[in-house]
Amino acid sequence: MSKNRKLNVFLPFLFALVLALGMFIGYRMPTVRNSSSKIFFVPNKRDALQEVVDLLKYKYVDSVHLGDLQEDAINALLKHLDPHSIYIPAEQLARINEDLNSNFEGIGIEYSMFNDTLNVVNVLQGGPSEEAGLQMGDKIIRVNDSLIAGVNISDNKIKYYLRGPQGSSAKLSLLRDHQEKTIQVKRGIIPLYSINAHYMVGPGIGYIKIDRFSESTVDEFMAALRELTRAGMEKLIIDVRQNPGGLLDAAFRISDQLLDGSKVVVYTEGVHSPKKEYKTNQPGLFEKGALVIMTDESSASASEVLAGAVQDWDRGTIIGRRTFGKGLVQDQYNLSDGGALRLTIARYYLPSGRSIQKSYKDGREAYGEDLENRYIHGELLNKDSIQIYDTVEYKTEKGRTVYGGGGIIPDVFVPYDTAHYSTLQLQIYQQNLYSEFAYEYYLAHKADFAGYKDIKDFIQEFTITPAILQSFYSYVQKASINPTRHSVKDDEDISLRLKALLARKRWDLNGYYEVMNQDDPMVETAVKKIQEMAE
Length: 535
Description:
Keywords: Hydrolase, Protease, Serine protease. By secondary structure, the protein is of the alpha+beta class. The chain is built from 18 helices and 21 strands.
């Protein structure tokens, strides 16, 4: 009885406390009651941007799609930062992450759209499609019950149909030799390789082409090194032309395979990021032996870390043209809308202490026009036209002078070969006619190509004859391109590219680069230079 009496005494206080707490919480949260209600904002707790978003949400005269507005607002904010701090919408995030993650989930084919029909141009060896019996030359008409042929379908839509969770199935309706077939493919993990090619480019000289720096790059690079070493490699050429970069750690670990002792490869530092050094710490597979790194104006970020460390420690020779000039480090932060913010958190500095980040003080548009301006100013054609933006002189281990502030200047300059890009060749390339013709020619002569025992046999024995070249020009003419004014140089370049594309059908990218490098001025310069270098 006394307990009930005590409870009755305290109940009014308890209700008062709950009511006060409810009023306090209600005051702190935005509410909408009627047309005269107000949205309450807590001073010093909410920023102006969030206040504006809430006002638009609760007070604007019409309904608005806040997602689009927020994306525009985020991009407007980022425009005031460096060009490499970007917002990635949710629908683009998976595709963008694929290159770094080194894989995706799908059926394992390469395809091209010819005549509004999906043609299988390559079947990944050991992948789900090969296991299910898919073949080069198959024309996929439907995926499950969705028609994809003759409907002007987008590439993103094709990927939506072909890709999916590992273990899920895709029913493919296709044409093979003019007959309809149905094949069930169980999707799997499809690797994305970052080493495009590795082979012996000359006696004792290995060649490795790195396309980007991803999670699998180090393992691929070490496997290539071991294979080339078994083949007698004593000197090495690494090709990072057109390589946009990727994971900083991958570039560091590859550098660790090339530099002996304990050496700083790169260090990073930012206002909110304390200095972090990346130092070599293990025996490498190629610490001795002549080394060349080939670069161009599209070699960026992680590519520049690798080339810069090799240059600063005088480990090898950089051949080519000035690199892109990206010396900023990004971290990726996932957002609640499913997208991500790739934010610059630090600058990286090469062993000599130089930063090679080019200026972005004139805005993103000017930053994006830098490569075009290099061409206009003649830098891609003449070493003397290279502009040095940071006049501070940095020293390599042996005392050579190097510069920062706009990319890595090569030790040996090789000009851009404009002769390879005539108006006719650009028109053919833009309409994908090289690939279409090579694909159709290969399918028609598949038995002949099977007779070559290896790529070296193919290079020596196979020739693009005048008859094949004339067939190609007739093919081009059907696409409303007039090839009658082609030059002897056009004939040579087109023949080389067709031969390389045919080699790719049989020996993948390794075959393609082995053919294309036969007439590559920079590769020729690199081979000549490395032959002159002492061990």
